[in-house]
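Reminder: ligand-aware prediction takes two inputs, not one.
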Amino acid sequence: MLKTLFPTLGRVRFTVQILMLFLTVYGGALLGSYTVDRISQALPALSCAYDKMTGDHCILIVNQHQLHHRVGEALVKAQDITLKVFIPVAMSVGVFFMFFFLLNKAFCGWVCPLGTVQELLYRIGRRLGRPLNRLQPGNVGRVRPVKWLMLLVLVLALPTMAGMGVVSNELGDPFCQVCPSRIATTLLTADTEQIAVRTSTTVNFALGALGNAMFGFVVIAALAARQPFCRICPLLSWNALFQKLSPMRLVKKDAHEKCEKCGVCEKACPMDIHEIGTEFGKKAFHEDCTMCGRCAEYCPDDDVIQLKFFGFRLFGSSREHYKRRVRAETPEGAPKQRVIDVRVNKPKGENG
Ligand code: SF4
Ligand code: SF4
Ligand code: SF4
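Here is what comes back for the chain with iron/sulfur cluster:
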């Protein structure tokens, strides 16, 4: 008896089918376009969107429209971004990493033209008898953060902000505008264009004047102090970020029993890195190191400081090399035989 009161499942399904047929075919006419629009967004079904009275939209037309107008356009933009942003950035960063992986900071000590120009000027200063100015540990510590600030502001922040239109387009390459290497290397090719200060805008004029002032300062300072620009160079801080990744290393073994803490390596270091004489292990390979190798050349004890590539010793300090080196030049870079053993006799003319 009870069974006959409830319809069969087949009957219920048929009823639902008829109701849905009305909804999907005549829903627009029955419920009004606003309600239909709500329902179609919540319940996409297979009624045709071309049916003007429909109560919903077929999911397939929604899919096609979204792929056509949204996904397709987004892919074109993504392709554009890939070609115009990711690939160029990946290429330049990749090439930098390949170069850096092999050389580590030896780029500074062995390749960089501005590093070489500063070193040549310093040698000229020594031969002209200019007084040597060494930075004391306290002053070195105060200067060290500047290179990070230069990287952050001039190389990263301002160019990005210029690209976003937040600051003037003229600030797109502010470091290049003040970089003394730009002027030094072009002057070496007899090209004087780069010392001309553009007066078209205040920003151009300020950057050009600052660049020339920086160049003048570096030329004069390099006669009396070693590597003055390197202390604040953003490329040094950029390299320092990754210096632990390279197989090229400056190694001073942990608690090396032969190191007498004589301090000769500190005097030889053009970057006034005091840690090379007082520290061991990772702390001795400082973020300011340019891997010039002078500390290893002037350390008078065998194998205390080494230059290594993939763990292989390229050069190691030795008594013999030290003797040959000081016969030609003091650790501070003064020419000729003015010193026999700097641990006993201070070189003439040394202020530091
Ligand atoms: S610190 Fe800068 S200027 Fe100095 S050698 Fe390295 S890259 Fe060149
Ligand atoms: S020169 Fe050699 S022995 Fe002297 S402090 Fe430096 S690492 Fe030690
Ligand atoms: S620590 Fe040694 S290799 Fe590094 S900059 Fe100083 S002298 Fe050159």
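The radius of gyration is 35 Å. Residues 109, 250, 268-271, 273, 276, 289-295 surround iron/sulfur cluster (ligand 3) (CB under 6 Å). We will return to this case in the review session.
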